[in-house]
Specification:
Number of strands of chain B: 2
Number of helices of chain C: 12
Order of helices and strands of chain C: EEEHEEHEHHHHHEHEHEEHHHEE
Largest interface: A-B, 38 and 41 residues
Strand content of chain C: 15-25%
Number of helices of chain B: 13
Largest sheet of chain B: 2 strands, antiparallel
Distance between the termini of chain B: 7 Å
Distance between the termini of chain C: 42 Å
Structural class of chain C: alpha/beta
Shape of chain C: globular
Strand order of the largest sheet of chain C: 6-7-8-3-9-10-12-11
Oligomer: heterotrimer
Number of strands of chain C: 12
Strand content of chain B: under 5%
Largest sheet of chain C: 8 strands, mixed
Chains: A mainly alpha, B mainly alpha, C alpha/beta
Structural class of chain B: mainly alpha
Strand order of the largest sheet of chain B: 1-2
Chain lengths: 324, 326, 328
């Protein structure tokens, strides 16, 4: 029996040499989650594309040949040029230009920025709001719980796009033309955030209701920990799995909603086009055969959302305890 | 049972009142109604008198009540853009939206259920994987992009279908329908697909997930242990248990279909309520926005109520819970 | 031999997981005769339920029957084509599961569920099937069966539901019934009724019964013979009186010693230290050896096979007289 022990020890020391860092990294690599990740090449591809898009957006100003938001850099004489590889292409416009002379490639990179900024901020906003309301509703219970859930139920009957449009419209009429681009951005984030908080709240509330009755919560209360600390530090981590899944799906929806609002003409001003705006502009030129103004932003948008959805799908299956 | 319906109806009215408050607030406080209605060179005195005429100097509660009474009679005020009663505008456009939404929902449910059931029963087949791919695309492509794609393919390149509008419509009283003309039917195809695709995807995923869940239950296992045929198990037991929650969800989604019609109508220039609403948001035409909100809420709330009642009819467990609680 | 209904020979069931293939059942053999009740007892995870599922052919991937044979009245059933097996299920083998609440489809009336099962296996008309359903409900002890036949599952209490489940299991008159923990989810007072019902049905119809449970009291009350399972193998098997009063296998001794009695003796309940090994970590040799008080060297190396010892059979080297043991 003593023979059986030694080889194991040697293996362990080899592993320790390769991964000198703390135990959590090793646990992460060996976890079921990562295993399922490695098994699915599709998911890995999706993750890679998502990361790629994020990097492109972050470094847009370095990568883009032109800053399409700066009117000084645009020349009408360069407008509506076809992509580089076609007969009418002109350098340096790799993917062609739109009717304002904007380089489509640059416009896509900067537009990606807007999509991702609005999307991520929107998720953070709705996530924070939803989690907080869910924690309060679940932990405090009673009338507060009923009120929050009733509001949630009512809001759920209204699709996000409608709420976003409404918030947008109200903001525009209340603040009128005093809205500059930054405030418009905030309005967008708030509009999208307000549309999506309900799922978070419901899920977190459900988890809280389950955990509330468990012994460790009673123990924490006995020690005298204040309620918010118990909720945040002990109950919330148990709900994080489903919350993550919701957040990924939410990100995709937020990006779609932002693109849709831009397409409908109620997003950021046209001088700072997001991917949705580009598609709207390009749609007008589709019939005259200038397809590139629609096609490339469309492909970029679709690829981004598709990757995020794939990640969300994988995450949901991987974290689902019933499927393990 | 009756008590249950009554309770739900009261809840519905409650929601409508809340929505009414929001609509009224928008109407009265978001922007200045008088300034929106008159030209720039109207004198201050004229504005003041108009304000008085419109009753804008009355106490808020009176204005609120007045708004309510009017709204209950479907009098929503005058549109800033068109200078016409909003109610007339809505009435004219409603059939277009309702027809489109209904076609889209029927498409979505039929194909969604078929594809979902197939994907659950033949999980590893090529067709099932294809359906999975289609469903992924369905929720990843924004509605407007799908619309543009379809228009480009079928209208511009192939020239089979019209790229905008409703085609010829036949009128019955205040209703107009495009179902009775060839051009009307042709015009319905692409918008219905565009509007229904997202729905169909949701339903397909829901049906598949629900069915897989049902197939894992104890009663299905017991049914297998009793030697029931595969067909009886899949289509007698599993399907029935799957469809009950699915149909409720799909029904509730009808409301969101009407809202999503906003986008589809914009892409296809479909003369419905959605297009009207978008133009109102773009031009800050508050009366239309408020009225649209009220109408759509009414539709949502009514649908929810009907679906709730239907659900209790279909699921026997709920019937006795309700009668015991009543 | 012609009244042997079920014959299981060296059954092996494997589950393929991402790390390894796990042997849930590793060489189980037993017979059940007509009208006999065989109890299968053991801790959770010993493989009792899996044995029942294997017999009725409901082991789903990633599990599979990896070896051995199962005979039903002489017919080999362990690798029958699915459609053939389906015809046997319900008609010749009936199975009852643990939780009666989740065993019945909540959306269908119980009468419809019984009639459906009857019509699947017989050619009775709707009317005749319904009549038979009412008779069955009466036989299992449901009062006013002609009225309650149109009820929904949630309108019955737990004990009544389990009776309905039993009715469903016997409606096609099977030769063998497998009852997987039929009383665990029920109140104690109802348990006794259900157990006596199962016993009576077995006697009246000559049905062989395989009763899986972890409750020794039920075993002592109901069974003719009992098999004690441990780690996917049979430790001891024999007539119930013999095994209960004179257990041979050290594990069986521990089990019987752990049954509290009302005789008022001042004995401490016997505890078996440790716990049953996980399927991925079954020790070599006899799986019980880490916890056994009588362990010696051979136990850790060589796996014991069941050998007859009087009227019982036991898988333990203590009783294996074919090899001379040297001092430990």
């Amino acid at each position: 029996m003593s023979d059986a022990v030694v080889p194991q020890k040697a293996e362990a020391s080899v592993e320790r040499a390769v991964l000198p860092s703390s135990g959590w990294f090793k646990r992460a690599i060996e976890s079921d989650l990562f295993y399922s990740f490695r098994r699915s090449r599709l998911t890995m591809a999706a993750a890679a594309i998502t990361v790629l898009f994020f990097l492109l957006a972050i470094f847009a100003s370095l990568l883009a040949p032109q800053n399409p938001f700066d009117p000084a850099q645009l020349q009408l004489i360069n407008s509506r040029i076809a992509p580089l590889w076609t007969a009418d292409g002109q350098s340096p416009f790799l993917l062609g230009t739109d009717e304002q002379g904007r380089d489509v490639l640059s416009a896509i990179l900067y537009g990606l920025r807007i999509s991702l900024v609005v999307g991520v901020l929107g998720v953070l906003f709705s996530g924070t709001l939803g989690i907080m309301l869910g924690l309060i509703a679940g932990y405090v219970g009673g009338a507060v719980d009923s009120l929050i859930m009733r509001i949630a139920d009512v809001q759920l009957t209204f699709p996000a796009i409608l709420i976003a449009l409404l918030v947008n419209g109200i903001a525009k009429s209340v603040f009128g033309n005093r809205l500059d681009a930054t405030s418009m951005l905030i309005v967008l984030v708030v509009a999208i955030g307000l549309s999506f908080w309900v799922q978070y709240a419901r899920t977190v509330r459900g988890s809280v209701l389950v955990e509330k009755n468990k012994d460790y919560v009673a123990a924490a209360q006995l020690i005298g920990l204040p309620a918010p600390i118990i909720m945040l530090r002990h109950v919330l981590p148990n709900a994080m799995g489903p919350v993550l899944v919701i957040a990924t799906i939410n990100l995709a929806l937020a990006i779609i909603t932002e693109a849709t609002l831009s397409f409908l003409g109620v997003g950021l001003p046209d001088t700072m086009p997001s991917l949705g705006t580009l598609i709207r502009i390009g749609n007008n030129y589709l019939f005259s055969g200038e397809w590139w103004i629609v096609a490339f932003p469309g492909i970029a948008l679709a690829a981004l959302i598709l990757s995020i959805n794939l990640l969300g799908d994988w995450l949901r299956d991987a974290l689902n305890p019933k499927l393990r | 049972m009756l008590a249950f319906i009554l309770r739900r109806a009261i809840q519905a009215i409650g929601v409508m009142i809340v929505v009414g408050c929001v609509a009224f607030s928008m109407f009265r406080f978001a922007g200045d109604p008088v300034n929106q209605m008159v030209s720039i060179d109207t004198s201050a005195a004229e504005r003041a008198s108009i304000r008085q005429e419109l009753g804008l100097n009355d106490p808020v509660l009176v204005q609120f009540a007045r708004y309510f009474v009017n709204a209950a009679q479907f009098k929503f005020g005058i549109s800033y853009q068109f200078r016409q009663p909003v109610a007339d505008l809505l009435k004219e456009r409603m059939p277009a939206t309702l027809e489109l939404a209904t076609c889209a929902t029927i498409l979505a449910m039929v194909f969604g259920i078929l594809m979902g059931v197939y994907s659950a029963l033949r999980r590893d087949s090529i067709l099932a994987k294809l359906f999975q791919a289609v469903s992924l695309i369905g929720i990843s492509l924004p509605t407007f992009l799908i619309g543009i794609l379809l228009i480009y393919l079928f209208a511009v390149v192939l020239g089979w279908l019209p790229s905008f509008g409703r085609g010829e419509v036949v009128r019955f009283g205040w209703w107009s329908t495009g179902l009775l003309t060839v051009s009307g039917l042709k015009a319905l195809i692409m918008p219905s697909i565009t509007l229904g695709l997202f729905q169909m995807t949701l339903i397909m995923r829901l049906v598949r997930a629900e069915m897989l869940e049902v197939l894992r239950t104890d009663y299905i296992r017991f049914a297998r242990a009793r030697g029931l045929t595969t067909r009886a198990i899949h289509f007698g037991h599993a399907l029935r248990n799957t469809l009950v929650p699915v149909i409720t969800v799909a029904g509730l989604q009808f409301g969101s279909v009407i809202a999503f019609a906003i986008i589809t109508e914009t892409v296809f220039q479909w003369p419905g309520m959605g297009l009207l609403f978008v133009q109102a948001v773009q031009n800050v035409d508050i009366p239309i926005m408020a009225a649209y909100l009220l109408m759509v809420s009414l539709i949502f709330v009514t649908i929810n109520l009907v679906v709730d009642i239907l659900y209790t009819i279909v699921d026997p467990r709920l019937r006795s819970t309700i009668s015991r609680a009543a | 031999m012609t009244d042997t209904v079920l014959s299981v020979h060296n059954l092996q069931v494997e589950f393929a997981t991402r790390r390894a293939k796990l042997r849930a059942i590793d060489g189980v053999s037993f017979d059940i005769k007509k009208g006999e009740v065989l109890g299968v007892v053991g801790e959770s995870g010993a493989g009792k339920s899996v044995t029942g599922l294997a017999v009725i052919g409901l082991i789903d991937p990633p599990g599979r029957i990896a070896g051995g044979e199962i005979y039903l009245s002489g017919l080999r059933i362990d690798h029958l084509p699915p459609e053939e097996m389906r015809k046997i299920r319900g008609k010749r083998i009936g199975m009852i599961f643990q939780d009666p609440l989740t065993s019945l489809n909540p959306l269908y009336r119980i009468g419809d569920q019984i009639v459906e099962t009857i019509k699947t296996h017989t050619s009775l008309s709707d009317q005749a099937a319904r009549k038979r359903a009412i008779d069955l409900l009466a036989e299992v002890g449901i009062p006013a069966p002609d009225k309650r036949i149109d009820g929904y599952p949630h309108e019955f209490s737990g004990g009544m539901r389990q009776r309905v489940v039993i009715a469903l299991a016997i409606c096609a008159e099977p030769e063998l019934i497998i009852a997987d923990e039929p009383t665990t989810a029920l109140d104690v007072s109802v348990q006794a009724q259900i157990i006596s019902l199962i016993k009576r049905l077995g006697r009246d119809h000559g049905t062989a019964v395989m009763l899986v449970t972890h409750d020794m009291g039920v075993i002592a009350e109901t069974c003719d013979r009992v098999a004690v399972m441990y780690s996917g193998r049979i430790a001891e098997i024999g007539p119930v009186q013999a095994v209960v009063q004179n257990p041979l296998h050290p594990y069986a001794k521990g089990l019987m010693g752990a049954i509290p009695t009302l005789s008022g003796e001042d004995k401490r309940l016997v505890q078996i230290p440790g716990s049953m090994p996980r399927l991925s970590a079954i020790p070599p040799g006899c799986p019980f050896n880490p916890r056994c008080n009588f362990v010696f060297d051979r136990c850790r190396i060589e796996r014991p096979e069941p050998v007859p010892h009087g009227i019982q059979a036991v898988a333990c080297h203590l009783y294996d007289t074919s090899v001379k043991e040297s001092a430990a």
